[in-house]
Amino acid sequence: MRKIVVTIFLMVACACQGQVFPTDTVVKKGALNKRINFVYLSDGYLAGELNTFATDVTTINNKLFLTTPFKEYINYFNIFQVRVPSAESGAKHAHSASDCPDVSVQPVSDPKNYFGSRFDYGGIHRLLVPDSNAKINSVLASNLPNYDQAFIIAHSAFYGGSGGVYATSSTDPSSAEVAIHELGHSFGKLADEYWAGSQYAMEKPNMTAESNPALVKWKNWVGLNNVGVFPYSGSASWFRPVQGNRCKMEVLGVPFCSVCVEAMIERIHTLVSPIDKVTPAVAAVPLNLDGSQYGFKLDLIAPVPNTLKVTWKLDGNQIATNTDTITINGANLSVANHTLVATVIDTSLLSKADNHIAIHTYNTQWNISRVTGISDPQLFKANLQVFPNPAVRDITVKYELEKKANVSVEFFTVDGKRISRYEQKGQLPGRYTYTLDAKRMRISPGMYFVVFAINGSRLTKEVIKIE
Predict the structure, then answer these.
(1) How many CB atoms sit inside 10 A of residue 414's CB?
(2) Is residue 100 a contact partner of residue 106, using CB atoms and an 8 Å limit?
(3) CA atoms within 13 A on the CB side of 440
């Protein structure tokens, strides 16, 4: 689920006359706004070779989702491919890098491929990079603007790849392993765990200038799974979590180390919530006194194996765990306002990040009232505040609108009698305050309900009036 504004891509697309190409769904796990969207783009494939591109996508993608942590989080991803034909087949090779193989092994070539993929980038032969980000931006904006990670497959039998904003690989026999390594850079924001040069040395999840095992960012892994604090072979000032060819960010054909796996899991959680849908998703009618049953449900995106832990609390008291569905009996509720909170956390042992629970705890909250019914859980985006509580005189309601909406604030007694109403139609995005002068209105001490509504969906909070 893409979290950045795509306006810049749309502007570039207009400038570059963005073209629509056949876009195929490889794997569809859910709605595009509820999943991480990977898209493969072809470069250097003739129109008649695009079936080969589809086969190459399958080869790489199958290997990717047999690799930890992608295999555990496969349900979080949608996979697409955009079939972009080139005028000529292959990738460019200028034979300009000092480490180029002999031209008898890899000849000089300059095909008219669509994205300009070429070897010898930055003076490194194996560094295979698409040379036209403007065209990539344009194709993405025109064909799959809500992508999260794009991958370029360059139609070349020679070894190469890169991991910039857009990951790239060729189609040589190691292409799948190269692709996964490069996605470690592009998707996981990881560093190489071999020394690539001082120009690449910087703080990353698996690279640091901190040498103290008690302070290093992966301190929770030190002593486990071969993780320590090891200097790079080319620098005594920069450190990596493992050594001896134990991580895919150093060599191909081995798993990612625990630190790299953790970084990619944290990246996955940054992009998408494990809560796919909630029921009820909109406001419901008031609860009855006749014992009617009201169901609440979470549709979750489960890792494999499922490491999600669910906790349900009613008015702060735990009423259920490890279930995605509960039922509330209206007859068991008092006339007071009640709060139902479902909390989801990922308890995967593959992440030991200090801030994992703090950042990646997912709550869905409903207010339940016999007077006004069940609130729309999405209303909590309004950041509604009612204070002071208890109140002696003024009762202030603050809220924030993300978009234009019809808004109302009402005050009810516990038996459902409305004593005040504030209404604004077509209120613009922004922060707002409404104050009720309870003393002037001669509101008696007791419990009251503040009912906040956006476009007809209601949220209820209780407030106590005292002398």
Answers:
(1) 17
(2) yes
(3) 6
Of the candidates 19, 164, 45, the one whose C-alpha atom is nearest the C-alpha of residue 112 is 45
Mean pLDDT of 105-123: 97
Q: How high is the pLDDT of residue 363? A: 84
The two three-digit tokens of residue 97, written as one number: 């890098």
Does 136 have pLDDT greater than 60? yes
pLDDT class of 188 with cuts at 50, 70, 90: very high
Nearest to 406 by CA among 382, 439, 387, 428: 428
CB atoms within 10 A of CB 338: 19
List the beta bridge partners of residue 397: 386, 434
Closest to 121 in 3D by CA, of 150, 89, 154, 149: 154
pLDDT digits (tens, 9 = 90+) for 13-22: 333 456 899 9
- Cβ neighbours, 10 Å, residue 327: 10
Separation of alpha carbons 267 and 353, rounded Å? 12
* Residue 78 CB contacts under 8 Å (≥ 6 apart), including other chains: 25, 27, 28, 29, 30, 32, 35, 36, 37, 38
Question: What whole-number distance in Å separates Cα of residue 403 and Cα of residue 301?
Answer: 28
pLDDT tier, 212 (very low <50, low <70, confident <90, very high otherwise): very high
The pair of three-digit structure tokens given for residue 203, joined into one six-digit string: 């703080």
Long-range contacts of 219-226 (CB under 8 A, 24+ apart): 220/352, 220/353, 220/354, 221/258, 221/259, 221/262, 221/352, 224/258, 225/257, 225/258, 226/257
Alpha helices in 213-304 (DSSP H): 258-271
Q: Residues 55-92: pLDDT tens digits? A: 999 999 999 999 999 999 999 999 999 999 999 999 99
Nearest-angstrom CA–CA distance, 423 and 382 = 16
pTM of the model: 0.81
Decide: residue 424, CB within 10 A, 0-12 exposed, 13-18 middle, 19+ buried. Answer: middle
CA 337 vs CA 159, 296, 361: distances in Å: 65, 17, 25
